[in-house]
Write a structure and sequence with these properties.
CATH topology of the largest domain: Tetracycline Repressor, domain 2
Helix content: over 70%
Structural class: mainly alpha
Strand content: under 5%
Number of domains: 2
CATH architecture of the largest domain: Orthogonal Bundle
Length: about 200
């Protein structure tokens, strides 16, 4: 019974998050209200308030859910996998399951993502979730201390930097490109030590 109840709660969270994202695409972020999200998801405003503090948190939830799935995948990766390979494959796993390797949005969809990405509240909701757990998982895998050693924090910061840089490049791309390739390239560059790009001759 408890398992069924938890699944229903998870389904409600996803429905509210999806409703918030779809409304943001349709109306623009400023025109989305908690009441509209609840109505679109087919629940009461009270139910919305039981799950989320506001619309920004609701919009960020699906990405946070992907981050948690990535973290769980990372913990399950074989110990012999190189660290950055394990991280890259874990981060990409839920994204590939949802969109595949070559999905690229329309220009209109990217323009809508630009508006969402500029919302500080959305970025903060993403940034403040799961980083501590990533640090702990990285420390466990590398035999370092999550409190006293800087290394796991540097790696976690690298994960955040790659995903944010990939997203910023993704929403600025014209024509649109798949984000999976951008994330792969970002982690490959990190693993290679961020070599300086070959300069084009003038």
């Amino acid at each position: 019974m408890d398992g069924l109840r938890e699944r229903k709660k998870a389904d409600t969270r996803r429905a509210l998050s999806d409703a918030a994202l779809h409304l943001a695409f349709e109306r623009g972020m400023d025109n989305v209200t908690r009441e509209a999200i609840a109505e679109r998801a087919g629940v009461s405003l009270r139910t919305f308030n039981n799950y989320f503090a506001g619309k920004y948190e609701a919009i960020a939830y699906r990405q946070i859910e992907r981050m948690r799935s990535s973290l769980n995948s990372f913990r399950d990766r074989p110990a012999e996998d190189p660290l950055w390979t394990a991280i890259a494959e874990s981060v990409l796993e839920p994204l590939l399951a949802e969109t595949g390797e070559n999905y690229a949005p329309t220009r209109e969809q990217l323009d809508q993502l630009v508006e969402l990405s500029m919302a500080v509240e959305v970025r903060n909701a993403l940034a403040n979730n799961l980083m501590t757990e990533w640090i702990e998982a990285i420390a466990e895998r590398t035999g370092t201390d999550p409190v006293r050693d800087m290394y796991p924090r540097l790696v976690a910061a690298g994960i955040r930097a790659v995903t944010e840089a990939a997203m910023d490049t993704y929403i600025a791309s014209d024509p649109p490109v798949p984000i999976v390739g951008l994330i792969r390239r970002g982690f490959a560059d990190i693993a290679a030590g961020l070599p300086e790009p070959t300069r084009k001759s003038s």
